[in-house]
Design goal:
It contains 9 helices and no strands. It is elongated and about 60 Å long.
Length: 213
């Protein structure tokens, strides 16, 4: 009996694809670790390859260039250190405390991986979609915190994005938790009225959970 040629080709492709996925993950993880070791200047791709246990040619084949490695490393870091904070916050019973958990946890994660985060920011490799997904997950927390009077009604989810960007800045400072407390106080009820947000795509309690037209 003669095996079908296309079946044999497919069975050969599957292991190669599995190997590529494993190598992709190993290289991204190695890059996260390597940025922590090398500091702001970041690692060479040869260093990342050695740490991942692959040849540098494999790194170029899977990622194209250093920016590709940096982007994958940041996305892995974000998925494993920042996104789970939202899941933990949503599982709790206090939405205001949950929002503080997310922002404070993000500050500490940014501080722990300062070189990686700063390199990704300076290279403009932090994708807007990454932040948008996180903000979408935070929308219910914000609306519930506003309903309970824990957060001012005129705050929109996009404001939390700005808060996270400010958190990224203060994560490099020794008094980052003090600075974060000052930022957080701006979300409490009773402050001056806020200007209308520009191009807001996320709802708030003030508009009934419906984004502006």
């Amino acid at each position: 009996m003669v095996a079908r040629a296309d079946g044999g080709a497919a069975s050969a492709v599957r292991p190669r694809r599995a190997d590529a996925r494993r190598n992709h993950d190993r290289i991204a993880r190695a890059a996260v670790e390597a940025f922590g070791r090398r500091g702001p200047e970041g690692p060479r791709l040869e260093d990342v390859a050695a740490l991942a246990g692959v040849g540098v040619a494999t790194v170029y084949r899977l990622f194209g260039d250093r920016d590709g490695v940096l982007r994958a490393a940041f996305e892995l870091f974000f998925a494993e250190r920042v996104t789970p904070l939202v899941l933990e916050a949503r599982a709790g019973s206090d939405p205001g405390a949950g929002l503080r958990l997310v922002v404070a946890g993000a500050v500490e994660a940014f501080a722990d991986h300062r070189s990686l985060v700063v390199a990704a920011k300076h290279a403009a490799l932090i994708e807007p979609e990454t932040l948008d997904r996180l903000l979408g997950e935070m929308a219910d927390l914000l609306l519930e915190a506003q309903r309970l009077g824990q957060v001012r009604d005129d705050v929109v989810v996009g404001d939390l994005g700005g808060l996270l960007m400010m958190a990224l800045a203060v994560s490099q400072l020794p008094d980052r938790l003090r600075n974060l407390a000052l930022l957080w106080d701006g979300l409490r009820p009773g402050g001056s009225a806020l200007p209308t947000p520009e191009g807001c795509r996320h709802p708030s309690a003030a508009d009934g959970g419906v984004p502006p037209a």
